[in-house]
Amino acid sequence: MKRWMYQSMIELGNGKTSSAALKRFAQSAISRKAIPGFINAYKIDLGDVDRPSGRYTSLHDFFTRSLKAGTRPVAGADLVSPVDGRVEVHGAIQEGSRFQVKGIGYSLAELLGSEQMAERYANGQYAILYLSPADYHRIHSPADGEVLKQYMLGDKSYPVNRLGLTYGKSPISGNRRLITELKTPHGQVLVVKVGAMYVNSIELTEFGKVWKKGGEVAHFSFGSTVALFFESGHLQFDAKIHDGDRIKVGEPLAYMV
Asked: Alpha helices, DSSP H only, in 45-155?
């Protein structure tokens, strides 16, 4: 019953018209006035932000802000966090290429739109990283690698916060998402960037075929999620990684052992 009520309420406001209106406002000059309230509401630390809040041209400009050089050092781990966010869940992909998020089972083939790709990661591991509206929303590469495939799937998007993940319509595999498959020295890695409700755009900033570990590759418009999938092999998550913990760009995520 709770799931039905939640989904019905979201459907009422999750249309193209409302999404377009919010996007226009967020990118307009008048939205600058909302920046101080946004900072206060989400208790955003401005210490590592690249310029004073008064110098942003719109709420969207602030939301997609860059950081001062050197504020996100890249660790020596084989795989590092691509975003600032919360580790929602991490672990082993189940038989049949399925994975769990908040008690909901997802199909990797459905997420990728390809049974063949899903088979490659069937016995691997995964990590779901959630970005709240307060977080830094630029996405970085988790490892050095060559882009093998990159494509977009999905159209409509639903919330990817805890309520959305618990009661939403399979937001991880149903939302608009940009899928990148990387060939790295540690095996192939999927970096799935999942859009959020309303302003669900995912903008590439790296158009080359080579990604450098810690290098910026894209950014979100408003809160969202990055899902990482690793091939079967001897991958071990960093001992400090626990579900529910915060993590930042460049911090250790996993090692090959």
From this structure: 59-63, 108-112, 115-120
